[in-house]
Queue: 4 jobs
Job 1
Amino acid sequence: LAQAFCPFRLNVPRWSSTVVPFGLSNFQSATMVSGEPAAKKQRVEECIHSFPKNKIKVLLLEGVSQKGIQMLRDDGFQVEALKTALTEAELIEKVKDLHILGIRSKTQVTRKVLEASNRLLAISCFCIGTDQVDLNYAQELGIPVFNAPFANTRSVAELIIGNIVGLSRRIGECTMQMHRGAWFKQAVGCYEIRGKTLGVVGYGHIGAQVSVLAESMGMHVIYYDTIPKLPMGNASQVATLDDLLAQSDFVSLHVPKLASTKNMIGKEQFAKMKKGAFFLNASRGNVVVIPDLAAALKSGHIRGAYVDVFPVEPGKNGENLFESELRGCENVLMTPHVGGSTEEAQAKIGEEVAAALLKCVNEGSTHGAVNFPEVDMKMDSNIETHRVLITHYNKPGVMSAINNCFSEVKANICQQFLNTKGSIGYVVVDTDIQTSATVKEKLEKFENVVKVRVLY
C-alpha cells in the first residue's frame, strides 16, 4: 500500500522541518517547533502526494549486522548501509532527507545534526549506550531514540571473565615474549581466580551477568551501585565504593556515561585498591583517568589491567591511530572497544533494534525508546479505524484540550494510550475513519502540540 503524507513548513525562529509517513499504509503529518511556545505559529501547506514505503530512507552506519539491514529492506524501506562512522559535517549533509538513522558507538548525533534533519522519525543505536546522541534535544523534536540494552550483555561479560583469567596468568606478557622468540616458563606472579574477590562497580545487566559467571568459577563477588540491587547468587552489595576497592582482588567497572561517573576512578581510588590488585574497564572511556592508571601500574601498586574503552578513540580502523599512556605498560591487555563485538551479539542487536523501528514506523509504538514516553498499543484488526499519534508538551490542560478536539467533531475513540516523560507527552488514539482528518486539522492549530500523525 502507498503512503500519503502532508508536510508543513513552519515559520519559526529556531528551526523548521518537514515530516513524512509514519505507518504501513496511508499517513499524514505535521510538525511544530519545539521549545516554549509563545504564540501560535503560521502553517503553510506545501504539498500532498503519495509516499511509498520504498521511499522511506534509512541510513545505517558502522557496520550494522546484515540481519537488521535485511529486516528493514524486507519491509520495503530504502536502506543505505555503510561500514564506517561519519563526521558531524558529513552527517549533517546525509540527514537532511533521512527518515531513520542507525548508528553504533562512534557516530555523534549532535544538536547541529538534529537541527539539520527535516524528516527524521527515529534514531536507532545498535548498541547499549546512547550517550552519543543528544537525547534531550531529540525528545524536544519528538524523535524517539532506540537501543539494544540486553543483546550484547553475554558477550561483554564473557570478555571480562576471559581477561580476568588472562591477567591473573600474565597471558599478555607470555604471548609477547614468545612472539619475539623468548621462552620464560614460570609460576611467579600467576594465580588461580578461584577464591579471589571480584568487585563489580555498577550492578546492571552486564555487571550482574559478570557476577554470575565469576561465581560459577569459584570467585567471591561483591558489588557497589548507587541504588539497592537484588544480588544474583551469593553476591553481596557493599555500602561504598571505597569498601569495594579495599576488599577486591579484581575491580571491574560497568557504569554508564554520566556527569557523576566522569573520572570516577583516578589517583585517589587506585591508591585505595589492594596492593597487587587487578583493574578492568569495559564500560565507558571517560570514567577512568588513564594517566593515573598508567602511574599505578608502573609503580607496581596495580598488578595488571584490562581496558576496552578509552577517552579518545579513533573514528576508523587503521595503523598508527591509537595513542595512550597505557601503551608499553606491563601486564596490560587492551582491545579496541570490542566488548559487544561478537557475531551473535551483533545479529541479536540488529534484530532487536530493527524490530523496534518497524513497530515505531508501522504502529506508532515507542516501546523501548530511551528518551521518549513509551507507548505500545495493540492495533485491533477487527475494526476499521485510523490511528492518531500526538506528541505534545507535558503541561496541565493539554490532554483535556486534545480530548475536547475529538469530542467537538463527535469522534468515536475506540482506544487510547497516554504516557509522558519529562517535558513531552505522547498519546496514541484509535478513532473512526470519518473524523481523523478533521481532528488532525484542529490539532495542528494547538500551540502545545509538537507533532500530529494519522496512521491507517
Job 2
Amino acid sequence: EEGLLNSGRGCSGWVALAMAMAVADVAGQVPLAFLAAAGATPSVASRSHLQRHGSAHLRGGGSGGGVAPESSIGVPVSAQEEPAWRRIVGVVAVTMLGVATGVARRRGALAAARRHQRNWAAGQVLVALAAGKGGAADEEIGDDELKFEMIDALIAKSRNASEIGITTCDWHTEVYDEAPEGYKMLLDKGIDMVDVEVGSTAVTLLADVLTNDQPRYCMRLTPRPTYGLGMMLSKKLVYNWTVIHPLETTMKKLGVETAEMLMLHTEGGARMNFAFWVYDAVAEAYRNGLCNKVGLSHANADISTVKRVQDELQRRGVSLSSVRLPLSLLDRSALELVQECKRLGIQVFATTPLGRDELASGRYTASNPTGGEIAVPRFTLAQLIPLRPLHEALANVAARVRSRTEKLVGTTTITLQWVRTKGASPFCDVESEANAKAILMCQDWKLEPDEVAMLDKAADEVDKNRPAGYRG
C-alpha cells in the first residue's frame, strides 16, 4: 500500500501496481523488482513487510504439500486471507468501473458542450432576427444560411472594434492610497473598459472608487496550479480551485455579478499550455454567467497559440473573443498576429501602447528629458537620442492633426491613434492626468494614411539603430 501511494505515475501506474500485487499474491510473494518496474518506491517498512510476506509463503512450500505458514499471531495465513482469485477479480472490477466512469463523465461533458453551442447559435439567430437581419417574419430562410449571415456580421463588427481601455497593471497599494484622478475622469466621460488582474492589489483601489456608472471589467486570471492532483480530484473541486473561486472572490470585492471579459493569463515568455480542466472551468464560468466573453492574455502569443485556444474553447461551446498582447511604435512584432486576429474576428487589446516606460509617447525626448516636469530626468541622452526620428515624426503628425481637427492633440494621442489604426484597442495607464487627457482627445477623428506611413517609416528607422531583438 505504501508503495502504491509512492508510485506517482497517475491512473495507469495505480492500475498496473494493483494488478501486480494481485498476481504476486497468487505466486506467493510480491517481488520488489516488479514494483520498481511499475514506478513504485516502497519504503523500508513496506519492503520488510513484503519480504516477510513472501518468505512465509515460501516456507509453506507453494502449491505442494507442507505445513501452512503461521502468522505473527499464530493463525494460519490461509485462514486470514481470502482466495487470490477473488482479489484479482476485485481489482479488475474496480479498474473497469473507474475507466467506465471516466469515459462516461467525459462523454457527458462533450455532449453538454455541444448542446450549449447549439443553444448559443440559436440565441444569436434570434438576436439577428430581432435586429431585422432576417427579413420578413414569414420569409423562409435556411438555418445554415442565417447562421453564416449572422457569423459574418459578428466577424465584420469585431474587425472594426477599436476602443480604448484603462489598465491597472502598475497600481499598487504601496504606491497609491486611492485610484488616480485620471481614472475617475475617464469613467465620467464614458471610458469604462478597465483591465484588472484577479487577486491583485489594484482590486482594493478599484473597490474604493465611488462612481455613478459601473465599469466593464476585463479580468485577467492566471489559473491556480493543481500540483498534479487535477486528474484525481472531483471536477467541481478542480473548477473552483483553478478558476471559479478566485474569479468570484474578485468580483465580490468589486461589487459586480458579471465580468465583461475573462482572460486566461500567463506571465513571462514561456510557451502557454493550459490543462484541459482549465478550459472546462472557463466554460463553466461562462455558462454560469460569470463573464460575457472569454479572451487570452499572453505576451508572446502567436497564431498557433491563438488557434489552439480557440479550438479548445469551441469544443466546449465558447468563442474566443479577444487577445491581449503588447503593441506600440517601439514594439511592432505582433502586427502580423493582429491582422490574423482581425481576419478571424477576434478583438485585440494592446498593452503598453506608449512603449516601455512610455518612451514611444513622444513626451520624453532628447530636448525635453523630463517631459516638461520639474524633476530629475527619467532617461539619459543615450536612451533618447536613438529615438529622435520617431519623436520628430510624432511632433510633425501632431501639428498636422491640430491644424486639421482644431483640437489640442499631443504626441501621446498620436501614439494611441496609431495603435487603433493597426486594428488594436489600447489599454493605457492613467496614473498621470496627461494620459487621461490624451485618451479623451482620441475621440471623433482618425489618422490619415500618409500620417500612418510617416510614423511607420520613422519606427523602421529607429529599429535599424537598435540592437537586434530589442523591444521597447
Job 3
Amino acid sequence: LNPTRPHDAGVMLSHTWAEDILEVQNAVNDRAAADGAGENLVIWFCLFAIYQVEDGAGPTIAEQLALNPFGCVIRSPSLAYM
C-alpha cells in the first residue's frame, strides 16, 4: 500500500476471517492511544499486506508467501508488538 515510502512496522497483526473486524479496529486504536503513537503507529496487517483476491491482477498468494513476508516483519528490529 506504500511502495514509494515504505515504513518499518511497529505492530504486526493477523486475524481469522471469523473475527469481528470492529473489535480489531478498537484494539488497534486502544494500542495506538496507549503508547502515544496515535496516527503515527505503523501497522503490518496481513489483511492489507497480502493480496488475497487471486484474480490474476496481482501476485498470487504463493508468490507472495515465497517472499516470506511474515518472517520479514517478525524479524524487523522496529517491531514492538505482535
Job 4
Amino acid sequence: MLLFVRWTCLRQKKYMTRVTRVATGSTRDIDIPKVPTSTGQIEKTGAKGVWIPATSQDPYGGANNSNNQKRRNEAARFTYLYHQHINAIRQKSFDGDEKGIPLEYFEYERVFVDEIHECLCTTKDELSEAKKNSNDDTGFHKEKNRRAGREFLGITTKNPSQRPLVFRKAIFGLTATPLLDSTNRVIELANLMGNAYIITLSSHWRELERESCRNIFLDNLLEPKQSREIRKNIYAKCQDYLDLACCKNKNEEDMEGIVLVEKTSKIRMSEEEGEDYKRSQSGISPESKGFGIAPEDFDPTAGHDVSKFLKQNARLASRGEMLVKLCKQILSEKGNERTKIVVFADGRIGAGRVAAEFLNNEVGLGCTFFDKDTAVEEKNKMLSWYQYADVTEEDKKRPRVLVLEFAHAAGLNLQAECSNMILFTPLYIGDGGTTSDPIADASTELQAIGRVFRPGQAKSKVNFYRIHVEGPNGEECLDGKLIRRNTDKETIEMAVNADD
C-alpha cells in the first residue's frame, strides 16, 4: 500500500488537534503543539568587523536579538510536546476498522521524501532569494512549512525509533538540488539518512536553533565530553557513510547510448544595438562604459543598477534573430519537421516574454509561453502538449516551441517528445559586485538541461544550443563572460557535487 502525505501536515491545526486528542484526550489550545513561524535563531558566538564595547553584558555589540531566546523556547516547546504526544499514541492500541489514527503511530517499510532540499538547511538568505524568484504558482515554501517538514522527519531526534516517521528498511530523500555544498547541509543530511550525529547533541547547529533555557542547562550537564580522537573517528565514519549513502547522478546505465551535444551559436550585435548596450550600464562612469563591462563592475552599495544592463542584453534584436534562426534550422532538418523545442530564459529580467515575442512575431513559427498570471490548470495543459506525442490534427497545428523560465527548471519531464533545447540568455542571478553565486547559476542551467537530457529520452542525441551575442566587431560582451563562468569545469563539478 502506498501512502502520500504532505510534509507540511504539522502546520494544519486539525491534524495536530487530532494528534493531541488521541494522545491525551485534551483539545485545549495550550496542549496542542504549534509549529513556530520564525526561522532558526542561533546566538552569535563571534564578532567579525563589529565594534565590541567595553562591557561583559553585551560582548557581541548588539548582534543578538533579545527576542531570539523567546523564539527558541517556542521551538523547544513544540518539539517537546509533539514527541510526548507521539510516545503516548504509540502506547495505545486501536481496532482494525478505527479511523483517524495519526500517521506517527505506524511503521513504514520505506519512506520517500520528494524535494528533500525544501526542508533541509535553509538559511534566511536562501529564503529571501527563493521568495524573490518565485510567484504564487511556483510552490514557494515559507519557513513555517519548512520547519514543519523538519519536525515531521525528526531530523534532530537522535534515536530513529523515536522519530515521527519510523521506517523498517530505509528513508530516501529525492532532489536535484546540491546538498553537499556546505558543512551544515552535510551534517543535516547525515543526521536524517544515517541516524547518528556527526557531533554531540549539545553542539549540533540545528539543535541550537531551539535550545530553551532548560535545555542549555541539561545538555551541558548531561552530554558527555568527547576527546579529539573520538571526534576524529566520528567524523571519519560519518563521511564513509555519506560516501556510500548519498546517490548522485546514478543514471549512467539508463543514459547509455544517449549523448549531449552542446553548441554555441554566435552572432554580432549591430552598431546601434552596441550604443544601447553601453547606455544601459547604469551607474558606470561614461569613460568606463564599454563591451568589456561585467556584472562584477556594478556596485549595488553605490546605487548601480545591473538589472537594466541584464534586461537590455536580453532584448537585443540580434539575439532574437539568432533564436528564430535556430528554431527554423532545427525544424527544417529531415525527420525534425514535427519535433518540439524547449527554450529557457531568465524570467527575473523578463527574458522569457522577450523570447516569446520574437518567436510569435515570426510568421509560421510562434511558441507556447505562460507566466505567473496563467492559471495552474491552463499551465499544466500547455505543458502536456510538449510531454506527449501529437495525436489529433489540432495537436499537430500547435506551435513547436515551448518557452520556459528558469523558475520552472525543476520537476518537469520533457524528454519523451523534446530533444532540442536552446538557452536564450546565460543565467546571472545577483545585484552586481560579489552578490552572485556562479555555482547556483550553473546548477540551475544544469537543471534546465536535465528536463530533456534524462532517462527516458527517446533520441540518441540531445542538442543543447547557447546563444552568444558579441559586440559589433566581435568583442567579448556579457554573454561570453557568463558562458565561460557557467561552464567552468570546477564550477560544474561543485554544482553537481562531483568533487571529493
